[in-house]
Specification:
alpha+beta, about 675 residues, six-stranded antiparallel sheet, Beta-Lactamase
Length: about 675
């Protein structure tokens, strides 16, 4: 039978029950001796009973129609919400009895309550949406959301936290606290909050604790919750790609029985706020990238114009003056400035290659000491120009790295150049190296401008120029430290920076893996020595293939000054015609030619039985490893990257002359 949902009742004129009422008995389970007189009130919920009796007595006294709402215990022990209506029955002008009904309205009241709760929830969510819609700062968005949620729930505190990549350490960057309650902002370890917190949050489940001391205890994380004044908490975590990335928590300083609606509300607010925060962060990142791009392009233009100006002045001076001293000065300026431009371009290319995964380290066992000395030589012009004092604390020859020697020199050289740039003239710089455990440690310290604490997190980002150093920095694209970081990580190492703030100097520390004890000792790298030009070799027949008229003309002039017979061509077909006429012993061949590229020209020369013996040297602005492989496959003997150092060109010509003279026939030279 369906459950009884309505009761028909009647009482005496003074409100007592004195006869059996089957419908009341069926609903409440009371027997007549239990509900006789005023016993029926015992079925009313204890919290409602006093009010019901008071209003019932008032109705009896007034003798009018009445309506009451209260909770009534059903025969199964459940309390149901009922609406009771009654009216007096008169006889001879006096109340003879009362009759009425009690109707179970639980479903209707619950539906109404759910509708009100839903409307309230939607109004609150809309309030958060309206309050944060125009915000463009993630921290401000977190703060507004935390305040509104905390106030809505009447909580002690509401906090937002970002979780580090280790899935444990998290930082509360923004929280809202009730007046007089301290902030919980800071860095914490999730493991300290107990196994329930770590398990739930790392697996995408809410952590809901109604009573920290009773449910967790000290061993279960209660000690850490109590340390920041938490006795009850709802904490929702965001898991992406299997990793906990963020959390939002509502704190209470006394035990609290969280309702399903409150728990649901926190979860929904968290989902919505995270989505908005991520949009804000993505927009901010795009704006930052756009700003970096504009700053980078402006800086690049500035950095390229800087060396071009003295080059132009030097050229003008060469035209106007025949004085040997002035000409030597002009030559020095041109050489230094073109070297600077080449270094600038090499750094840009290195960053691009690393980003695209095109750099392959050539690691071997190598002593650290000579690499540090070589790095000093690369930075020596900057150090000497600013009259810095350099202190060296070098390791012994037994400290061996498992590393790419050229890249180690590049990293340490960049750090030394950076120290020279951001240290006032006449400053102190220290370079030290030692072994610690399984790592080699390199440290570059200076007493320069230092780095404010609020800017240190940006230091290794691409194209970063710190605002405080604008007056001291001597140019640069802001890629040196980013390059150091990426190269160190490629080696399986790391780089970190320490500075106590503005004008407190900086210390950069690089850690790189030591070579295994069983590895063979590496051969110390040879210092780069620019030797005097070798004695002029026998004249060679040389073909220069270059579509840049100025580049071609200057290269031809240089080779002719060295005593060689030179022909030139500006494209592939002309190169083949000139080769057939000259029968060159050496071909300097640009790759980016119009119509027919340099690799195709090389393949055709190698296929010609009368021309295949010529030494082919690629002369190109493309210097990546895959470019070198491409030229080797096309039949080139060597690959020179523009701008080519004159010494490197002389060395190639010299080896070609030696080969032509029969010294090392058939050998490949590079």
């Amino acid at each position: 039978m369906p459950p009884t949902t309505a009761i028909v009742w009647h009482t005496t004129s003074d409100g007592r029950i004195d006869v059996e009422n089957p419908s009341w008995q069926a609903f409440t389970g009371q027997h007549l001796d239990e509900y006789r007189g005023w016993g029926w009130s015992q079925a009313v919920h204890p919290e409602d009973r006093e009010g019901v009796l008071r209003r019932w007595h008032a109705a009896v006294e007034a003798g009018g129609v009445f309506v009451l709402h209260y909770r009534l215990r059903r025969h199964d022990g459940q309390y149901r919400e009922v609406m009771s209506q009654g009216a007096p029955v008169f006889c001879g002008g006096a109340v003879r009895e009362w009759v009425g009904t009690c109707v179970d309205v639980t479903a209707e009241r619950r539906a109404q309550a759910a509708l009100r709760a839903s409307e309230e929830r939607l109004r609150f969510l809309d309030c958060i949406g309206q309050a944060t819609r125009g915000l463009t700062d993630a921290t401000e968005t977190m703060a507004v959301t935390a305040r509104l949620l905390g106030e809505h729930l009447g909580a002690m505190r509401c906090a937002y936290a970002d979780v580090e990549a280790d899935n444990d350490r998290f930082t509360i960057r923004s929280d809202w606290s009730r007046a007089g309650v301290p902030s919980s902002a800071g860095v914490y370890s999730l493991d300290l909050f107990g196994p329930q917190a770590t398990s739930n949050l790392r697996n995408g489940r809410h952590l809901v604790v109604n009573d920290v001391d009773r449910e967790l205890g000290d061993a279960g994380g209660g000690r850490m919750f109590n340390a920041i004044g938490i006795k009850a908490v709802i904490c929702a975590g965001l898991v992406k790609q299997g990793r906990l990335v963020a959390m939002m928590a509502v704190h209470q300083d006394v035990p609290r029985r969280w309702t399903p609606q409150e728990i649901s509300m926190v979860g929904e607010v968290v989902e919505r706020s995270w989505a908005h925060i991520e949009r804000v962060r993505a927009d901010a990142k795009l704006r930052e990238q756009d700003r970096h791009k504009d700053e980078f392009l402006a800086t690049l233009a500035h950095e390229l114009r800087n060396p071009l100006a003295p080059i132009k002045y030097a050229i003008a001076m060469l035209r106007l003056s025949a004085d040997p001293g002035r000409q030597a000065q002009a030559h020095g300026v041109i050489e230094r400035q073109t070297t600077h431009m080449a270094r600038l371009i090499d750094d840009l290319l290195d960053v691009s290659r690393i980003s695209r995964g095109l750099i392959t380290l050539q690691c071997r066992s190598v002593p650290l000491r000579p690499l540090l000395l070589e790095a000093v030589e690369t930075a020596r012009p900057a150090l000497d120009a600013a009259r810095h004092r350099l202190a060296l604390e070098l390791p012994g020859e037994d400290v061996l790295l498992d590393a790419d020697p050229a890249r180690v020199v590049q990293m340490v050289g960049n750090l030394l150049s950076n120290a020279a740039k951001y240290t006032p003239d006449g400053g102190d710089i220290r370079l030290a190296g030692w072994a610690a455990g399984g790592q080699a440690v390199v440290e570059v310290a200076d007493n320069g401008v230092g780095v404010p604490l609020d800017q240190q997190g940006r230091l290794f980002q691409m194209f970063t120029q710190l605002h405080h150093s604008a007056g001291r920095a001597q140019g640069g694209l802001g890629i040196g430290l980013s390059l150091v970081k990426r190269l160190a990580e490629m080696h399986g190492g790391a780089v970190r920076m320490r500075s106590d703030g503005l004008d407190e100097g900086s210390t950069f520390t690089v850690e790189l893996p030591l070579a295994q004890a069983v590895a063979r000792p590496g051969v110390p790298p040879q210092a780069q020595v620019h030797e005097a030009p070798p004695p002029r070799a026998a004249a060679l027949r040389v073909l220069v293939v270059e579509d840049n008229p100025d580049g071609s003309a200057m290269l031809v002039s240089l080779l002719e000054a060295l005593g060689h017979r030179v022909a030139r061509a500006a494209d592939g077909p002309e190169a083949l015609r000139q080769a057939a006429a000259l029968r060159p012993q050496l071909v300097l061949l640009d790759l980016g030619l119009p119509g027919m590229d340099g690799c195709e020209v090389a393949r055709r020369l190698r296929a010609d039985s009368e021309l295949c013996g010529a030494a082919l040297v690629a002369l190109t602005g493309w210097g990546a490893e895959r470019d070198r492989l491409r030229t080797a496959e096309a039949g080139f003997d060597a690959h020179l990257t523009k701008p080519v150092e004159p010494d490197a060109l002389r060395a190639v010509v010299s080896r070609c002359a030696s080969r032509a003279a029969g010294e090392g026939q058939g050998t490949h030279f590079a």
